[in-house]
Amino acid sequence: MDQVHSRALEALQPFVHLANANSATSPRFVANIITNATSSPHTYVFAELLETPTIQSLNSPDTPDEFRGYLRLLEIFAWGTWQEYQSTPNLPQLNQQQTLKLRLLSLLTLSATLKTLSYSSLMAALSITDRSELETLVTTAIYSSLITARLSPASTPPTVNVTAVAPLRDVNVHSLPTMISVLAHWETRCNDVIRDVEAEIKSITAKAQKRQADERARAQQLEKALASSSSEGGGGGGGVPLAQRKGGPHPAGNSNNKREFTADDDQDDDGYWDDGAEGVADQIILPSRMDIDEGAGAARAGPSSARHAKRVLGKKS
Fold first, then answer.
1. Same domain as 61, residue 30
2. Are 161 and 149 in contact (CB under 8 A)?
3. 17 shares a domain with 131
4. Which distant-in-sequence residues (6+ apart) come within 8 Å of 311 by Cβ?
5. How far apart are CA 100 and CA 95, in angstroms?
6. In this structure, is residue 267 part of a structural domain?
7. What is the reported pLDDT for 317?
8. Cys staple from 71: which of 58, 112, 125, 144, with CB 3.0 to 4.6 Å?
9. Which residues, 6 or more positions from 103, have their beta carbon under 8 angstroms from its beta carbon?
10. pTM reported for the whole predicted model
11. Is residue 255 situated within a structural domain?
């Protein structure tokens, strides 16, 4: 679309040079420049030509009435519409090229305000009575890269769906104060949004910093608690080592230490009592052995039988 605007500016330059180079400012000459510029098939912007002193000379009180309307006609081509031309009196008659050009420019303005255009609304705005003529106009605008659109003649109602519009309409100088006011209001709203976003960012940052500080404080408290618990565990128990408090052996040199013997203490025992200690074994009652009732038969068998029974039954299970 920017290339279309550049081509339109290039197409207008010969008329601008002609208006600036010629010192003659006769109303008829100026009217011819306007007619030729608005009839050219590639000119769609006219603000630069409209600002030249030669064109503005038509505002002179000495300008004949038949040429006064040309300046207004050029303004309509610059930023007006077909409806404005129809409602403005004392304007020159348009030739076929000018009629097509003004309708195309009016279609650009309508497409910029309404993306979905019905056939009926376009035909009323452009003074077209035939649907095929409207479709031809829209097709010309599409192939000239003025708009990007799609015709939907079978829809209800038939519509023209516009998706892009070339920036080819000039800005009305009388609408500049309104545009400045709208832009100033938009700038104020943007500044308000920026301030709200910055305030929200500061709030989120402050909350994140506070959360990090709380986490660091909790971590320090946990470390202090763990250190205090460790120091108390190392010095507790009244000076008695942890192994002794759990029933471990007493330090060496304690004369009161007594060992309790069981049959499981000697891992190398073969399961029988030594014969050399038979007399002693007969007198010792081991806590892990079962007392054996020898009975009357054992008593009759004599001491040697009793000793032999003890040796056998004394075997580890």
1. yes
2. yes
3. yes
4. 272, 273, 275, 278
5. 9
6. no
7. 43
8. 58
9. 82, 126, 128, 137
10. 0.60
11. no
Task: Please count the structural domains in the chain.
Answer: 3
How many Å apart are CA 201 and CA 183, to the nearest integer?
27
Backbone angles phi, psi at 159, to 5 degrees: -135, 165
CA-CA-CA-CA torsion for 186, 187, 189, 191, nearest 10 degrees? 170
Residue at token pair 């650009």? 108
Is 240 within a domain? Answer: no
CA distance 101 to 35: 12
As given in the structure block, the two tokens for residue 184 are 């100033």
pLDDT digits (tens, 9 = 90+) for 217-262: 999 999 999 988 888 765 544 444 444 444 555 444 444 444 444 4
Q: Do 22 and 149 reside in the same domain of the chain?
A: yes
Considering the domain architecture, whether residues 215 and 309 belong to the same structural domain is answered as: no
Same domain, 219 and 286: no
Length in residues, the chain? 317
| Angle value at C-alpha 60, between 54 and 64, nearest 5 degrees | 100
**Which one of 190, 207, 225 terminates a domain?**
225
pLDDT digits (tens, 9 = 90+) for 254-312: 444 444 444 444 444 444 444 444 444 444 444 444 444 444 444 444 444 444 444 44
Enclosing domain of residue 291: 275-313
Do residue 113 and residue 57 come from a single domain?
Answer: yes
Q: Are 149 and 143 in contact (CB under 8 A)?
A: no
| Counts for the chain of helices (H) and strands (E), in that order | 14, 3
Q: Are 158 and 123 in contact (CB under 8 A)?
A: no
Verify that 153 and 6 share a domain, yes or no: yes
- State which H helix or E strand residue 139 sits in: helix 131-143
Contact 37, 15 (CB under 8 A): yes
How would you classify residue 285: left for phi > 0, otherwise alpha for psi between -120 and 50, otherwise beta?
A: beta
Query: Which backbone phi and psi does 147 adopt, to 5 degrees?
Result: -140, 160
**263 within some domain:** no
For the stretch 20-75, pLDDT in tens is: 987 667 899 999 999 999 999 899 999 999 999 999 999 988 899 899 999 999 99
Residue 156, exposed/middle/buried by CB under 10 A (0-12, 13-18, 19+)? exposed
